[in-house]
Amino acid sequence: MDANEAREGRAKLLAGAAAKFAEADDAPLRLPEWVKRSVLNTQENRETRLILKEENLNTICESGRCPNKGECWAKGTATFMLMGALCTRTCRFCSVNKGMPSPLEEDEPDRIARAAQKMGLRHVVLTSVNRDDLPDQGANHFARTIKALKEAIKGVAVEVLTPDFQGRRDALEIVLAAEPVVYNHNMETVPRLYKRVRPGSKYDRSLQVLAMAKEIAPDIPTKSGLMLGLGESFDEVKEVMRDLRAHGCDFLTLGQYLRPSRDQLPVKRYIEPQEFDALGAYGWEIGFKMVHSGPLVRSSYHAEELANKL
User: Fold this and answer.
1) Is 132 among the domain residues?
2) pLDDT mean across residues, the chain
3) Which residues contact 141 (CB under 8 A, 6 or more apart)?
4) Regarding beta strands 290-293 and 86-87, do their DSSP bridges make them parallel or antiparallel, or are they unpaired?
5) What was the pLDDT predicted at 306?
6) Model's pTM, two decimal places?
7) Cβ atoms within 10 A of the Cβ of 260, count?
8) What residues pair up with 293 in beta bridges, in sequence order?
9) How many alpha carbons lie under 13 Å from residue 14 in its C-beta half-sphere?
10) In a domain, 299, yes or no
11) Is-contact 21 283, C-beta < 8 A?
């Protein structure tokens, strides 16, 4: 297939996906086969759960009710969630509990390092709740945890998925000075839906966070993700993708929003696998260095393999 045929193929794929996004879908939504996951009750899964319990650690796998938890835990991987289990923001897609968090646990970085050692991790992903109550938004806690991991595990790669730190450049500088291998901050949805989906967050501010990260540490790849199925249009998704590239974002993840419980926003539409393929192809076309697009894709899903490719 020559270059012209490849372009024509991508154009047809995009046109078909755009038509699907535009279809009205008022019928009651049933969970399609392509987003169903079986529970993996393996020895590795049980060992991971035990280690996390022993060290009294939170993971986004559990707090966020991730559909890939069984698969990841069976491989001995987990995404650690720093700074407690209560978030100071009230995002309506997220099942993490809301409220005023407790003071930071000073030994948490060391407990995470021990758990990562026990699990034999070579690539660790750190995320956190929003800590708008802290003077530094929790940036120093991220840095201390990266340092603890590097001291405990020779050659470990640490990827971070941070909140927006209220747009604070000094907070970003603290985290990036600890030299994570990837800096991730998720956009989550399109600008029109921000007030409904992410109250307390701002679309332009999140874009600026990614741009600042690239300015501060040009050699550290930046990454962001979107969840689809909340009522966004095909063109709106493409616009966000272009905005991310314009702000220097290197790597993109696209996945299906799945309602964690009745307390969160309902799914407006289940996006079909071929539509994810079309958006993934568009991402490559506009210059992302790596695109991972599919119904069950999440920010840290297969993070180690993707970071190695990146």
Assistant:
1) yes
2) 86
3) 82, 83, 104, 108, 109, 128, 131
4) unpaired
5) 62
6) 0.87
7) 17
8) 254
9) 17
10) yes
11) no
Specify whether the backbone of 155 is left (phi greater than 0), alpha (psi in -120 to 50) or beta: left
- Strand, helix or coil for residue 187: coil
Check: CB of residue 231 under 8 Å from CB of residue 268: yes
Domain membership of residue 40 (yes or no) is yes
Q: Does residue 27 lie within any of the structural domains?
A: no
What CA–CA distance (Å, rounded) separates 63 from 61?
6
Rounded CA separation 29/270 (Å) = 8
136-182 residue pLDDT tens: 999 999 999 999 999 999 999 999 999 999 999 999 999 999 999 99
Q: How long is the chain?
A: 310
What DSSP character marks residue 120? Answer: T
Q: Token pair 């001291």 is at which residue?
A: 151
CATH of the domain at 218: 3.20.20.70
Indicate the number of domains in the chain: 1
Structure tokens at 187: 């956009």
Residue 125: give the domain boundaries: 3-22+32-309
Written as one letter, the residue type at 195 is K
Instruction: Specify which residues 292 forms β-bridges with.
Output: 253
